[in-house]
Structures
1.
Amino acid sequence: MEPFIRHDQVIFIEKQMKQIIDGQQKHLPKSVMRALTEEAHFKIEAQFIRLTEEQRQLIDFTRYENKEMYLEQIKACELDFPVVTLAELKKLLPKYKKLKVPEELAANTKRSYLGFDDVRSHQKVIVAEIAGELCAIAGHFIDKHQKNICAFCGCTNEVVYFTAKTHARDPKNPDYYKTISHLICKDSEVCNAHLTDLTKLHDYMEEVLKK
Ligand SMILES: [Zn+2]
């Protein structure tokens, strides 16, 4: 089958399956398990705007005795994150001419967004696909050396304080551009492993990029 599942949806489905498996291991009463199963089934379907009959069957975990096998099927239909070339980065972030995607990240195509630190410019770079278009922002960051809630994935992980400049003037100081800061996961691959909803990431990027 053609890939049709985004990375955040794969993570979402994995989390739902974990709850079901946990429930089975705890030997929850049948009625509770039935309610859990129905809810998970509903939530997974609600992740998708449109499904063909074949796709609907594939995401229906109740058809699989073995949940591991189900997750394998899901992963086999995961969409790839686009390969971000040097030329593309130059086009997206013309101010930072020598940006390079670290090799260890370039090989992985299963993610919701690409995030890496550029040592040369002391910037964190974030690349995501919004409405089918590749977008990128760069901003400086302060390592907080502590765990806190990430503004993108909502999970408690090692965070940095990330600040990006928008194209809007700062109302308090019109000589400067407004900046927006958030605590976000220090390691974007960790963030990707928790991200089940792209809204906050995309809203933030759109606000930074708005002209
Ligand atoms: Zn995160």
2.
Amino acid sequence: MLSTMINNVFPKTNITEDQKKQFNSELIDTNFIRSRNLSILLLFVITVLLFTDYLNHNKGLLEGDVGYRLLFYSHLFHVIAILLAFLSGISFDSNKSGGKQRFVTVFSYLTLIGSTIVSTADQYMNGQITVFVLVSFLFAIINYQKLMFNMVMYTISYTIFIIGITYAQTNPNILRGHYINGTVIVILVVFLSRILYYAKVKDFSSRKTIEQQNSKLEKTNQELSLANKELYESLLALDESQNIIFTLTLTLESKDTNTHGHSERVAKYAMAIAKHLGLDNRDRVNLWRAAILHDIGKISIPDAILNKPSSLSEDEWAIMKSHPERGAEICSKLKFAREILPIIRYHHERYDGNGYPEGLKDEAIPFLARIVSIADTVDAMTSPRSYRSQPRTMEQAIEELKRCSGTQFDPALVETFIEVYG
Ligand SMILES: [Fe+2]
């Protein structure tokens, strides 16, 4: 429990369990490489020191002086420590984290303990604790370890250090100084190693945050690219749809001798009304498409009825009146035209309910269909037709609109038309 509390170094970060494992693995690798290089260097230095021990032995210093003897033992201890570290790391699974961590642990613990023996030996000669201080700082700097690891390591070495110098140092003043210095040094190195470890954690967290943000950015970019592609395809499809509209309209107008340019003029009137009313873009697009296509059902009306110069019989008129429904039926096959089907279907409904095909009344007639109705009638009145000698003027057409306001047409829309064209 205590260990978990002490070693939980990611309390406020959004680092996942996998990332924590990655962090630990990276640290173990770093620690291992540094400790391995240091151990090789140390092995070389100790080999030289063992040679000086041999010279001291020849001079008889080893036998005569406990300090030199202890120094020799400490060198032997260091060699054994390094060999043990290699054995513990390599003999099991050196390629995996377990072996590397064992190597680092054995090497750090034993080398630091070895430095306490050196400092103890030094009490018999120079009275210094320099080696213990240096090695303590060295491991605080080269190792990124959790607090528990360092606390145990420094507690063990500190205890041995205190026992060693107490036993070896006979001058109480120097001993007191070593107690104070050794204690302060150990506290300092524990703090230092903690600070360095946290800096590493922070660095890792920042790196992961940046990676996550980059990943999110990349994802957003991909989504944007996809959206752009879809938009481009939609635009192409729209372009194609509009081509279909014009083709269908042209086909119709080539059949009906009375309606050349009719659809475009109806669209023009409808758009003028839409602009005056401030309709939104979607309504305008739908209105324009419906205005162009409103009579498309006439394409399936026999030419003999469509272009008959005289009045239609009752049966012929019934067929003629079916064109709004036929138009809606034709356009129902076009995906882009789904929203305009009611406008095509009801563009011959009357405001008083006497229109066709369903006799819808007032507001029951779709709003855009009421606009098409007015635009359609105005153009029918003001364009040349084979069954009458002269088209009406706009003034006459407006008079007719006024006369039929509230019966055939939506009075509010008649007002709007007059405001635009009156
Ligand atoms: Fe019509």
